[in-house]
Amino acid sequence: MDLNKVQLIWNITQDIELKQTPNGQNVCSFSLATNRSWVDGAWVKQELAEFHSIVLWGKLAEIAWQYLHKWKKIYIEWRLQTRSWEAQDGTKRYKTEIVGENMIMLDNKQSWDYTPNNNKEENSFWAVKKSTTKKEDEISIEDIPF
Fold first, then answer.
1. What is the b/e burial string over 88-114, where b = at least 16 CB atoms within 10 angstroms of the residue's CB?
2. Which of 72, 60, 73, 69 is nearest to 28 (CA)?
3. Has residue 35 been placed in a domain?
4. Are 105 and 67 contacting, i.e. CB atoms less than 8 angstroms apart?
5. Hey, which of 19, 52, 67, 71 would disulfide with 145, CB 3.0 to 4.6 Å?
6. Count of domains for the chain
């Protein structure tokens, strides 16, 4: 049995970038920062920020582009994926990304400028999941526009 699952909660560090593949599939990318703090052996507080590349596809990418902005707090989960390509100078490059299919926006709905049917509900979070996993929704590495 194998498991490839990542769970992150923190702030978006840049505005969302939405693109389309040559076959018309929406894809967005952005980075997410997580912080870790600890006390070292000399009792000095240490902090470290990690930046993670996030990729969302299809309807989830559209929703992210519409509602997510820099400094918004989200929960994202799915899987790690490493892709490779040849750079212009002939060297092989690699990038490990988190390909998300489950996202929960952790601020209240009003802070996302989203009020369905003028409902001023103060929910603490709301979730968005990928709606389909049909074979035609699968993307090849050649389709990635960035």
1. eeeeeeeeebbbbbebebbeebeeeee
2. 60
3. yes
4. yes
5. 19
6. 1
20 belongs to a structural domain? yes
Give me the mean pLDDT over the 138-145 stretch.
Answer: 55
Q: What is the pTM of this model?
A: 0.64
Q: Give the whole-angstrom CA distance, residue 25 versus residue 134.
A: 13
CATH of the domain at 21: 2.40.50.140
Local confidence band at 46 (pLDDT 50, 70, 90 cut-offs)? very high
As a whole number of Å, the CA-based R_g of the chain is 17
Mean pLDDT of the chain: 77
Tokens of 61: 């990418």
- Domain hosting 82: range is 6-143
Q: Distance between CA 21 and CA 140 in Å, rounded?
A: 10
16: its two tokens = 């969302």
Residue that wins the pLDDT comparison between 90 and 6: 90
pLDDT over 70 percentage in the chain:
73
Give domain status of residue 136, yes or no.
Answer: yes
